[in-house]
Amino acid sequence: MAKHNKVINIGLIGLGGVSQVHLAAYQSVKTARITAGVDIIKERVAMMAEYWNFAGYMDYHDMFNKETIDAVVVCVPCRYHREVVETIAEYGKPILIEKPLAGTVADAKAMIETCKQQNVPLMYGASYRFLPATMKAKEMIDDNVLGEISLMMEWSIGGQGRESFKDLGPHHYYPGSFGGSGMGLVDHGIHLIDLFRWFLKSEVVSVYGKGNISGGTPGSEHASLIFANGATAHLIYNDISFTSNIESEGIYSWGGSWEPDGTLNMGGGWESHPGSIRIHGSNGALRIYHYANQLFHFDKDGPHPITLQHRPMPGNFSIQLESFIDAIQNDEPMKVPAKEGLKSLEVIEAIYKSMETQTIVTM
């Protein structure tokens, strides 16, 4: 129970990183009000401020000086996270920051230290933790339904050929550093690294893999992770080729998802190529259709569909913001503190070190 029910005034920084889906989800949260938004593109500020009925600014100092802001959601591209967070931390407002936490581990550590010095709560936007299918899977794993977890897997393979590959570009990730596409190892796979750590309550101890370089020639990406408890995880991504799925291998989707080309599919129909996560334990297994909002439990008696609460994507963004607001209202630690984002980013950097050295890298 919240200590008080004050509506929290939210300032959005980086309107270019906030989709209409995100904003609709944010505005559905009864304990939050989107009060103002900031972006460097004048036309974008004017259009979004008018459509969503909030005050628009091109400078966040102006926003803080002219508006009552209780908390901030940072949606600027990843490479600018440190610059923005270190600047706005002086205003002392709680911050929710999207994934990945920063463009480098050094940037992430500096951000966390700045917020610690300024006594500013910093929450990491691990939005996959707030999907109904993954929340239920976590509950089942914690209840030991699967026994000892030994293997976790996720892959995304499919595109329209190399010529249609869309690098997120130097405005998002540092050129020559880790990067790639929106459905690649970094921008998407970091969700899975976070989920696997969360599911297991265990940290990665060694990695081997390969990822795309920001601005470089794209290729197939992969990562093999070994956890302290002995479990292994495997990730495979390739959006420079074509899918090999057959349409009949799909599933009916109840939630929204983004296609490899960035197209938003809001669900409510047959999805030919749904994303899914596989978890295998000594007593059973799970197939988690995280965006399609379906979950299956496998044991000696076969697959069993699991009933889920009905707030699939984009509901996870509402649930995440509610968690952020609850922590502020109750003066409690953030449910997903920034250190969780740092740990997952350290795994990403280790994967790229592995690619550079062609060795297994110990964390």
Cα-to-Cα separation, first versus last residue: 39 Å
Q: Would you state the CATH class of the largest domain? A: Alpha Beta
What's the total count of β strands? Answer: 19
CATH architecture of the largest domain: 2-Layer Sandwich
Write down the overall geometry: globular
Poorly predicted runs: none
CATH topology of the largest domain: Dihydrodipicolinate Reductase, domain 2
Beta-strand portion reads 15-25%
Structural class: alpha/beta
What is the radius of gyration computed over CA atoms, rounded to a whole number of angstroms?
20 Å
Instruction: Determine the mean pLDDT.
Output: 94
CATH superfamily of the largest domain, by name, is Dihydrodipicolinate Reductase, domain 2
Order of helices and strands: EHEHEHEHEHEHEHEEEEEEEEEEEHHE
For the biggest sheet, the summary is: 9 strands, mixed
Can you give me a brief rundown of this structure?
The chain has 2 domains: 8-126 and 315-331, Rossmann fold (3-Layer(aba) Sandwich); 129-312 and 348-357, Dihydrodipicolinate Reductase, domain 2 (2-Layer Sandwich). The chain is 29% helix and 25% strand. It has helices at residues 20-27, 42-52, 60-66, 81-88, 105-117, 132-142, 189-200, 315-330, 338-357; strands at 8-13, 32-38, 55-57, 71-74, 95-98, 122-125, 149-157, 204-210, 221-227, 232-238, 251-253, 257-258, 264-265, 269-271, 277-281, 285-289, 294-299, 302-305, 361-362.
